[in-house]
Amino acid sequence: MKPVPVPLTLRRLLEHLPDVPPPPGETLPVLLRAAVQAGASDLEVADGAPPMFKVNGEIATLTDEWTIPNLLEALGEAVPRDALEEVANRRLLDEDLSVAVPGLGRFRVNLYYRMGALAAVFRVVPSKIPPFEELGLPKEVLHMVEARSGLILVTGATASGKSTTQAALIDHINARFPRKILTIEDPIEYLHRNKRGYVVQREVGSDTRSFHEALRSGMRQAPDVIMVGELRDPETIALTLTAAETGHLVMGTLHTSGAVGAVSRIVDAVGEGLQAQARTQLSEQLIGVISQQLLPRRDGQGLALAYEIMRGTKAVRSKIRDGQLHQLAAELDSSSDGHHSMSASLKRLVAEGTISESVARAASRQRDL
Predict the structure, then answer these.
(1) CA 326, CA 320: separation in Å to the nearest integer?
(2) How many C-beta atoms lie closer than 10 Å to residue 8's C-beta?
(3) Are strands 180-185 and 225-228 parallel, antiparallel or unpaired?
(4) Which top-rank group of organisms is this from (predicted)?
(5) Are 294 and 159 in contact (CB under 8 A)?
(6) pLDDT digits over 265-316, tens only?
(7) Which end of the chain is more exposed for a tag (fewer CB within 10 A), N or C?
(8) pLDDT recorded at residue 348
(9) Residue 262 CA: distances (Å) to CA of 84, 154, 184, 232, 259
């Protein structure tokens, strides 16, 4: 029996599933293959529950026949044994890791418990790093990443394409400049091969204990470019600012909505006693902020990128230095000096017929969009 009916945008998922579920020991590979072939972003499986896919932001839940009876055993074919043992013995209740499944590709995996049952979310990592031209970002971004030093922030909610954007920007540098590039990720998603550059990828948990430890030691490893997968704590943020200040080009991600929110988060995170110093460092080192969303296309064929770009112009840096962060939004909305507001991006996508007005309104922070 095929899964229950789902929206038209998910039909291609059903085309990659057999009419009858395979034996329990073969179910997970079949589900993972369907996720890859159908262009799903995520697959979630759990003990005692039917699998769930996300395709273009929509959910498709399969019938109970697809439930994997012993998830721990099924995961043994895809997840390293030591990670499974940690979770199975409850020494860890949550675990993030990246895995490579032969013949399918790479996945970012989160193992966790829900109501006492083991569950796993597999996020599909595309096997190929997209060229910058396919991202949908303006060319000004390329000028930002070609700087020799400074700070670039890439922000957005979960599943907004931040990792893909960073990978494409790193690949652009790698292909064109003889620079040493250090990436610190949790976990590693896209794999980079050396081109004109030399790329070192480190994973938190297996290659280093934390982002801030990798940053501290990384600055002594002669990198030209440092990519920080997540600015998640005050120490990592402080070291990121220092790395930019000491002549490195640094890219970091934040889970914030909007370019202005990213600057505020950086300043607030370091603590009250260090905020003036953080504002000074930001005002001197900020190259720009890229904030993005992935929104369902009107034609149902995937997702469209909406973006916001705030350049580190003289006016922006002055407002950051003087603590006038509340004035940054007006500066951004002026659309001058290379800035691009989210509202302008959404209006353009609507005018082009790429997204619907209702999707744009839901994604906008402005009521009058």
Answers:
(1) 9
(2) 9
(3) parallel
(4) Bacteria
(5) yes
(6) 999 998 888 899 999 999 999 999 999 999 999 988 889 999 999 999 999 9
(7) N
(8) 96
(9) 35, 9, 20, 12, 5
Mean pLDDT of 35-48: 93
Work out whether strand 150-155 and strand 286-296 pair parallel, antiparallel, or are unpaired.
parallel
Q: With beta carbons less than 8 A apart as the criterion, state whether 16 and 39 touch.
A: no
CA angle 152, 153, 157 (to 5 degrees): 160
Q: What is the pLDDT of residues 46-101, one digit of tens each?
A: 999 999 999 888 888 898 999 999 999 999 878 888 888 888 877 767 888 888 88
Task: Kindly list the strands in the beta sheet with 150-155, ordered across the sheet, starting from the edge strand earlier in the chain.
Answer: 198-203, 180-185, 225-228, 249-254, 150-155, 286-296, 303-311
Class of domain 132-363 as given by CATH: alpha beta
Any idea where the domains of the chain sit in the sequence? 8-125, 132-363
pLDDT of residue 131: 95
Place of tokens 């569950």: 119
Give the neighbor-by-neighbor strand order of the sheet with 58-61: 58-61, 49-55, 42-46, 117-125, 105-114, 94-101
Tens digits of residue pLDDT in 109-123: 999 999 999 999 999
Domain 8-125 is found in CATH 3.40.50.620: no
In 3D space, the residue among 197, 269, 202 whose CA is nearest the CA of residue 234 turns out to be 269
Chain centroid offset of residue 237 CA: 18
DSSP 204: B
